[in-house]
Q: What sequence folds into this?
């Protein structure tokens, strides 16, 4: 989790797959997943208005043209930049006296609600995120308490509650804490004694939700687990608890939890679901899909899907996978015309994008 990217995936849902067919373009369009836009691969372009010391950035699922970026000024201060044209240009909107932030995240149902957080917690005790409810102008701290030093491993949203997962260290190695930060309310733990649904999760792999449901996935000492709650941790439903996994499990999702990409354990099959229904299921090496599937990307509002093969990036277009760049990207979002825009930082520390 380094560089200028939020390298964490958000997802919603687990769906078993029993066939290898592909859905029609009519089905994918009706569900909100877009596959038949006029593909026009363009050159990489440097975003305008941003300095070089970018620590994190994100784009809104509610309003895709809105995005925010944090820029390191000193070790204890940051500048906040905003875009209203999907990242083509940026302007500084505020400064914040806060320790270096590794991640910025936008509430998927409110583009004015933004969270800044550091990925490393060096000692047990109080931990704070910075939050703005007015589009990045005024920032206040929301705090929680952890009983060990820790690392942020995953985060996501359920409604307007930000949820962060912490992989614990020291005597608590092999355990994780999960904390909810509701809008304008005190935080609270969803874990009990560093266990989720009585289970010690050593490595959190995915956290995400819709407006009413939250899912948490991770690896334990014996295998993969997935849990669902609709009452913020009071009750849990087990989605998966197994050391032997045959069906693809969620690997990436849109910020709003609508579109999910699942990969099987050897990354040879990808399944895409929208609103709980499987719309596409492919094996590697078919329909233009590369033989190696390393990672999946989904735009914040769930319209576009890409995969990283190690030798470049492939976009799902007309139910085919089309290679659009040899560059390893960090994020998939949209441009002002509503078409897919890939993002990555270049060797000069600049934020660059490619429209497709």
A:
């Amino acid at each position: 989790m380094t560089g200028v990217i939020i390298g964490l995936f958000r997802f919603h849902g687990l769906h078993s797959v029993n066939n290898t067919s592909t859905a029609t373009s009519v089905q994918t369009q009706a569900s909100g997943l877009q596959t038949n836009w006029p593909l026009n691969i363009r050159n990489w372009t440097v975003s305008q208005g941003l300095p070089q010391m970018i620590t994190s950035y994100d784009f809104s699922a509610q309003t895709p043209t809105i995005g925010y970026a944090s820029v390191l000024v000193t070790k204890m201060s940051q500048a906040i930049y905003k875009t209203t044209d999907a990242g083509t240009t940026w302007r500084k909107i505020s400064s914040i006296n806060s320790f270096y932030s590794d991640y910025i995240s936008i509430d998927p149902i409110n583009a004015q609600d933004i969270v800044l957080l550091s990925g490393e917690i060096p000692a047990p005790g109080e931990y704070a995120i910075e939050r703005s409810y007015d589009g990045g102008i005024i920032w206040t701290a929301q705090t929680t308490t952890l009983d060990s030093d820790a690392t942020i491993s995953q985060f996501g949203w359920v409604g307007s509650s930000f949820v962060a997962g912490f992989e614990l260290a020291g005597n608590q190695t092999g355990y994780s804490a999960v904390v909810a930060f509701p809008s304008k309310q005190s935080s609270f733990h969803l874990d009990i004694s560093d266990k989720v649904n009585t289970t010690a999760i050593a490595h959190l792999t995915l956290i995400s939700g819709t407006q009413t449901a939250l899912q948490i996935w991770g690896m334990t000492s014996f295998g993969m687990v997935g849990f669902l709650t609709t009452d913020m941790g009071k009750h849990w439903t087990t989605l998966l608890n197994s050391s032997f996994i045959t069906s693809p499990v969620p690997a990436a999702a849109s910020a709003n939890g609508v579109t999910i990409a699942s990969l099987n354990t050897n990354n040879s099959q990808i399944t895409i679901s929208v609103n709980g229904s499987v719309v596409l299921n492919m094996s590697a090496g078919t329909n233009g899909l590369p033989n190696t599937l390393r990672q999946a990307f989904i735009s914040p509002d769930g319209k576009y899907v890409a995969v990283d093969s190690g030798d470049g990036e492939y976009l799902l277009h007309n139910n085919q996978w089309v290679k659009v760049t040899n560059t390893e990207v960090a994020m998939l979002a949209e441009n002002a015309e509503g078409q897919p825009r890939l993002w990555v930082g270049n060797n000069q520390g600049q934020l660059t994008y490619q429209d497709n």
In short: The longest strand covers residues 150-158.
